[in-house]
Amino acid sequence: MSGEEGIREERIYFLSVIQTFKSYKDLSHKRIQHKKKCVASLPLHHRKLLSKYSEDLDMLKEGIDMNAELIPLVLKHAYTMFDNVYSNMEILPEQDARILTDGLDKVQSVFKQLMRDWSSLGVTERKQCYQPIIEEISLNFPADQCDRSQIQVLVPGAGLGRLAFEIASRGFICQGNEFNLFMLIVSFYVLNLCQNIDEYVIYPWIHQYCNNHSIDDQLTSARFPDIKPKPSEDGGFSMTAGDFLEVYTTKNEWDCVATCFFIDCAPNVVQFIETIYDILKPGGVWINLGPLLYHYSDMKNEKSIEPSFKIVCEIIQKVGFKMEKCETGVKTKYCQNPSSMLQYEYDSVFFVCRKLKNEEVNVDN
To answer: pTM of this prediction?
Structure first.
């Protein structure tokens, strides 16, 4: 594929993401309408018994409408977030930008991620997942022993940017990197355009139709942002778009790489490990927390590998890292509705690795 063709494909995908966001309300309503048709097809005495269920479905439509109100506000700025690359773009017939097949799920996941990263309801999950990483960074780069404004921290798979923002808020130069356009578009709005605390109301679990004690569980609302995101005036915080493996190719650049629920997002985890090693400065530290879900494992036509954590540890050390800390069984949740009958909890791993300095490598050899 030529460079021009590649740009064209990227633009078509971008427009497809925009179209998918715009379709959220209609597609979500259609799902509810399908459920109402199912009820209508039942015998009369069943329909009578399910009258409260039908009323609940109408209530869900109101929550979906509330979610949908956020979308045009976010999309208003989507075209200019990449330095005006897409600002004058039109949906041309030959481009044929379509609603993405799995797009509704991705839009729904954004609402749950807003809860996790930027609402008070997400505090518990952030303490489980982000706090150990933040504390470890602070321990390795104490404010009284180094100039944090000179310490560069990278957060790949930054999602909506809260972890990277929190790290930058502690005086570090921190850059978040994200590949998912759905996340990038919404994070841009939250980080740059939200004006007030608890400015917006969303319903993060409104599309979870199973394992609810009552309709109130499904209609649990969250307000965001719980703090007013204010990037540091000296430019210590930034977000970049793109594939981690393609964006970060400069060796010996970063003092710290912090990964949270990230390393299992690659079809080949070895590539991630090698890249993290290469981009760290000698003596730099890699801090990781998360499970090994291996997102590509069940995808057709994907060459996915799923090594156990024991093998991952062996690879980490063979690549050249020194494992300084390693904990297993760290209890973590991800965008979990605390009221649901079904509770997912990971026994995550937390480890800290250091890239040996040149003189240390020579001694070991």
So the answer is: 0.93
